[in-house]
């Protein structure tokens, strides 16, 4: 038997609970993994609470990421004993995921864990941190460098935001952190933020073009904040948009795009091609400061996951949560 969070939807409603399950219930896949750590991401919190339409089939084990050790493999690239990490590909949405002591997954979805990381560190990074790296790589691909000017990061006290602040500052950027939690200023400065901006100052509709402040942006919030960020980009600035913590809407004008040549880059981690994933994990091993990663991280047990999911959606969690299996 193995322990897992199981989400069920039936006549009684939508329920998530900690359960003991038979290994025979795992999906039919070519690799089995003993999960050592998973993590709690925004999407997992939506799945567990049922507050967003994340889960595509029931019953579902949530958990969009995992790190662990291969126990059985029919895939040519993996053998028992290999340390692996998995992000996305619909795991925890349409395929049983990482918030479980065992997982059965497709070998093609796995990335070998970089030697620099323990499985715990890999999940302290998790999908949030890997997505932050994808955003940094997108800024670079579109020509942004520390010499271009300031980079703004929204939702900075959260998971994607914290890793983005830490990575960018280590790479030499001057980082402006946007937060709705002024009490986290010293935490954000410890990750390398040079300036803190109150979320409220970007939360209201403004002019189509504002004072040109930022060369680059990592936005996890969407909604009015993303629109305000776009309006305040410098000429030929680059905005990476990966999240919707503030909503799905995008109440913007085309002015920043047609008058300042701003680029809006969408970042998706779920179906991201394998070569880019491998590169993102290589870059994380090279560029992320492990001490800052630890500062961002708190560890919980599987039995704490359900209340923690509610806390995360209420904005009461700082940084990243790793789940020990
Ligand atoms: P967290 O909950 O850890 O962080 C989100 C942060 O956003 C919060 O800490 C808060 O930061 C800010 N925030 C929350 N609610 C609001 C609001 N109503 N208005 C403005 N700001 C708000 O989540 P993650 O970092 O794990 O994920 C962030 C977003 O990125 C989510 O929408 C998630 O779905 C998305 N995401 C997308 C991926 C992709 O592949 N595209 C992959 C990973 C995540 P503060 O208190 O500092 O203001």
From TrEMBL:
Show where the Enoyl reductase (ER) domain sits.
16-323
Transmembrane stretches, start-end: none
InterPro entries reported in the protein's UniProt record: Acrylyl-CoA_reductase_AcuI (IPR014188), ADH-like_C (IPR013149), ADH-like_N (IPR013154), ER (IPR020843), GroES-like_sf (IPR011032), NAD(P)-bd_dom_sf (IPR036291), Zn-ADH-like_protein (IPR051397)
GO MF annotations, alphabetized: acryloyl-CoA reductase (NADPH) activity
Q: Which domain of life is it from?
A: Bacteria
Q: Which SUPFAM superfamilies match?
A: GroES-like (SSF50129), NAD(P)-binding Rossmann-fold domains (SSF51735)
Name of the protein in question:
Oxidoreductase
